Each structure stands twice: as structure tokens, then as C-alpha cells.
Amino acid sequence: MTDLQKRLRKRGSMARIGVIGGGSWGIALAALLRKNGHEITIWSALEWEVDMLREQHEHKMLPGVRLPEDVEATGDVETAAKEKDLLVMSVASSYTRETAHRFSPFVAKGQKILNVAKGIEGHTLMPLSQVIGQEIPQADVAVMSGPSHAEEVGRGVPTTIVVGAKSRTTAEYIQNLFMNEVFRVYVSPDMLGIELGGSLKNVVALAAGIADGLGYGDNTKAALITRGITEIARLGTAMGGKFETFCGLTGIGDLIVTCASMHSRNRRAGILIGQGKTCEEAMAQVQMVVEGVHSARAAMELAGKYHVQLPIIEQVNKVLFEGKAADQAVKELMLRDKKLEVSDLPWAEA
After folding, report:
1. Helix (H) and strand (E) counts for the chain?
2. Total-model pTM
3. What is the model's pLDDT at position 343?
């Protein structure tokens, strides 16, 4: 134990934290939490990833972000989970249920789990915190989201983010673990709104990337971001999320950064699709999980369930899964029926 950890432990402010998932986001957060003085264990289901972290103390997908040698990497579930003050769940949405099921026997009653992945489970249409809650009902599950690329968090670029939890006590506990001079954390009770904003923005980011791939400009990007957040808020509020959440960091904030940055795997995949590649070819070239592809189908199913219109997300689905030409999808969006931008604003004259 380092001198910093000894001082923090004496003050009761050092925590034992297990990071579940050894990808770029998990590594960036592990580096941040270790810098804050906490004791960190990283778990991965991939033997090669565990070996890489043990031997090189960094991940090939996040070069330059070096972990201290006292950060433990393991493939053993019990080692990663037992006697931890917090588990940070950072696995792709398609593996969240399976991973939570594996960890459940080793999670104590009331143990805190923070989900930092973004997505909607395809066959249940559940946000990931609910998936974790089903598999680990004894846990106190929270969520964290916001405009935050792993590449920048790992380098200490100033970042703001939001933690959502059922209780303010849990949210503030997690806030205190993460917050430092370059990582500002807000808290919110709207877990559902936070998760929906983080999941659905990936679909709009695919649309923004497709527009870039087609050679369109800033005007198009601004339109997609603005009308995209309208669609996200429309579905999100119908499901019970709070409108204010979609106006904040985990709504418009996360959408802006994901649509604008080349760090965004969803935007990069969209660019390739706009240039003529298939969905499968684009995902293979990006070489990382493109969550927007998985969330796109779920979003349309949710739109039908809650009777809301999502024209941008609908066209993304047609391009991804029905072979529709991307330029034709844009043309149909532009030629939709004429509408008011905001329907409930009064006119001075009829």
C-alpha cells in the first residue's frame, strides 16, 4: 500500500474498487480512480487482456495511458468482486447480463455497482442498470454517463459527467470517489433518462457519421444533432425520463461530443457506411463494439411500444438493416411533411 493510500485509508476515504471490463473505458476510469488514491483491481474475461495489463500496464486500445504497477489485473471473478466497496461495470451491452450473472454469487447485499456502459438490451428493451438489477438483485446499482471519451479521460483532459442513483447518498458516495481537478461529477436521481440519453445518442451519431461519409457539411451535422436530441427526448420522456436530463450533459452534451469527435466509434462507423461500406464491414474496420448498431433496433421497437415518431433513427435502421442507400435516406428526411419546429408556441396572429 502506498503512502497516499495509507493516508486515505486512515481518513476513511480510500476505497477498494473492482473495474469489471478491461477495455479502453474501464482502463481510463481505473487510471483516474487510482490517481485519486483508491485500490484498484481490473477484471477481464479475456486471458490475453489480463496478461497484457499485467505485463505492459497499459491497453493497446488506449496507448499512453499507463497504469501503476500496483493495479491488479485478474480473470478471477471472486478476486475482482469480494470485499470491494464499489464495482464499476464496463462491459459491452451484449455481455452485460452474462457478466452480471457470473458476478452475482460474489456480490454482497447492498454492495454498490456503477454501470458505465451505454446501451439497451435487445431482447428485453431494458436499460443496462435494470439488467444488472435483475441478475444481482442484492446490489445497489447506479449509472454514470456524459460527454467523455476514454482517450481524453485517460490523458486528464477536463471532463464533466453525471452519476445517477436511486438514493442521493449512493450518488454522492460515488461522486466523491471519482471527482478531482479534471473530472467533475454531478449527481441526478433520473437514472432512466441518463441511460436513455447515453444509449440513443449512439444511433444519432451513426447518422452524423453517415452524413460526413456522404460529404455533407456543418449545416447537416447541426440539423442532425438538434433534431436528434428532439427524438431522444421524445422517446425518453414517453418512457419516464425527465426532459431536463436530455437538455444536460447526458443528453445534448453526450450527443454533441459523439457526433463531432473522431474518438467516437459510432461516428467512425457511420462515416464508413456513408462511403459505401456495409454495416458489417464498417464494424469490422472500426475493430471495437459499435453500440449504436445494437441500440438502433431497440429504439425502433421502443418507438412502437410508446407510440412516438423517430424519423432520423428510423432511417438509420433502414440503412443499417434494409440496404437502403444513405443518400436516399437523407433525401426522404428532407422531404418529410412540413411541420412546426415547436408545436405549442402561440402565434401573435392566426
Report:
1. 17, 8
2. 0.92
3. 80
